[in-house]
Amino acid sequence: MKIKSVRARVFEWKGKTVPPQGNFCSNAMDLVYKNPASQHAAGKDTMNTFRFHQWTVVEVETDDGIVGLGNVALAPRIAKAIIDEYLAPLVVGQDPWDYEYLNQRMYRATHAWGRKGVGMAAISAVDIAIWDILGKSVDKPVFKLLGGRTKEKIPCYYSKLYRTDLKEMQKEAETYLKQGFRAFKMRFGYGPQHLQQGVVENLKSVEAVREVIGYDNDLMLECYMGWNVEYARRILPKLEKFQPRWLEEPVVADDIDGYAELNALTSIPISGGEHEFSLYGFKQLLDRKAVSVVQYDTNRVGGITMAHKINALCEAYSVPVIPHAGQMHNYHLTMSSLNCPMSEYFPMFDVEVGNELFYYIFEGEPVAQDGFLQLDDDKPGLGLTLRTDYLQQFNIIE
Ligand SMILES: O=C(O)[C@H](O)[C@H](O)[C@@H](O)CO
Ligand SMILES: [Mg+2]
């Protein structure tokens, strides 16, 4: 079997969107004052617009007609250009079963500029499509090629609860508690620029959600890199009484020493990884005890080939892996490793941030039942197909 072609298309949502409400979510841009002269790189999908409304879909086809589906959501247009210009020529004509060789070929060929960020995200998309091919060619789901079923079903946590009105947040938490979720991730809306009043607001929001879900359910706290170490040092001790399962991405991903200091500061585990890349990136996080929960995203980190290696590395360090975002490319990794205790889960919503766009492009994503997800032993490959019913609401860039 040889790879015959690689097709990368950008799906640009032009349908209805729900603009971010309230203080929504602290993020890395918060520490940079808002300069009307240059709003978010001319309105593009950047950190604080929370408009990740494009997604690149990759179709890798073999000479015997198997088509593997991959995807990338970071800088989708740039990722497409990288795939078209650099990665496709490296894999066409090759045997998809040589997936380690092909992953190394893409990683090393683009190493001068691609070892972090969108270069690795583009590699991830091609690699994910290759694994979809492998599963389809032997009529097995991808997780069966990675280690098989380690769980009867996958526990998942409800992930949304962006910082809007506290009563709205409590209603939202109530709704999903009633649907059987036993774990919830909420977002802070305030950071250093909001001074002590912001600290009070942040604490109030955690108290409000705890009021609804009680203390016999997990609560995770998301900062999305919107704080700095000094602010986190001040607020973490005040958060301990709420017993969060983890506090996520307090500071920018490059401040590994900052993560390590905060991870050792209180009883609250610090999590991160959705903005880290490659096996070596995670070795650094583990060696420096920067995180207590690893959260790579398989469509960013280097694909299934890379994520599978990171799963093994994290197991050796006894640091659990709970991938960012849910989505099939992550669910197969979680199912196949005992060191992956649960998945993140965004239910399907009207398009808001963009995390939910996956549901509008792909068919086959499992729907959580009572806080659990199931993967099908008999669905080959990733178990995804392209939807046609929302196609009219996308601009598709070939
Ligand atoms: O952990 C997450 O789910 C991500 O950080 C979200 O995708 C981002 O939208 C912030 O909530
Ligand atoms: Mg996050």
Q: Which SSEs are present, and which pair or pack?
A:
Layout: E1 3-13, H1 40-43, E2 54-62, E3 67-72, H2 76-91, H3 99-109, H4 111-114, H5 118-137, H6 142-146, E4 154-159, H7 166-178, E5 183-187, H8 195-213, E6 218-222, H9 229-239, E7 246-248, H10 256-265, E8 270-272, H11 278-287, E9 293-294, H12 298-301, H13 303-316, H14 328-335, E10 343-345, H15 358-361, E11 362-363, E12 372-373, E13 385-386, E14 394-397
Parallel strand pairs: 4-5, 4-10, 5-6, 6-7, 7-8, 8-9
Antiparallel strand pairs: 1-2, 1-14, 2-3, 4-12, 11-13
Helix pairs in contact: 2-3, 2-5, 3-5, 5-13, 7-8, 9-10, 11-13
Keywords:
binds ligand LD2SMVNI, TIM Barrel, alpha/beta, eight-stranded mixed beta sheet, 398 residues, binds magnesium ion, 15 helices
- The CATH homologous superfamily of one domain corresponds to Enolase-like C-terminal domain
CATH topology (level 3) name of one domain: TIM Barrel
The CATH C-level class name of one domain: Alpha Beta
Which sequence of SSEs, written as H and E, runs from N to C?
A: EHEEHHHHHEHEHEHEHEHEHHHEHEEEE
Calculate the terminal CA-CA distance, rounded to whole Å: 26 Å
| Spatial shape | globular
Biggest sheet, open or closed, and with what strands and sense?
8 strands, mixed
Radius of gyration: 20 Å
**Total number of helical segments?**
15
* CATH architectural category of one domain: Alpha-Beta Barrel
Strand coverage percent: 15-25%
Q: Provide mean pLDDT, rounded.
A: 96
Heterogens: ligand LD2SMVNI, magnesium ion
* pLDDT < 50 runs, ≥5 residues: none
**Record field, number of beta strands:** 14
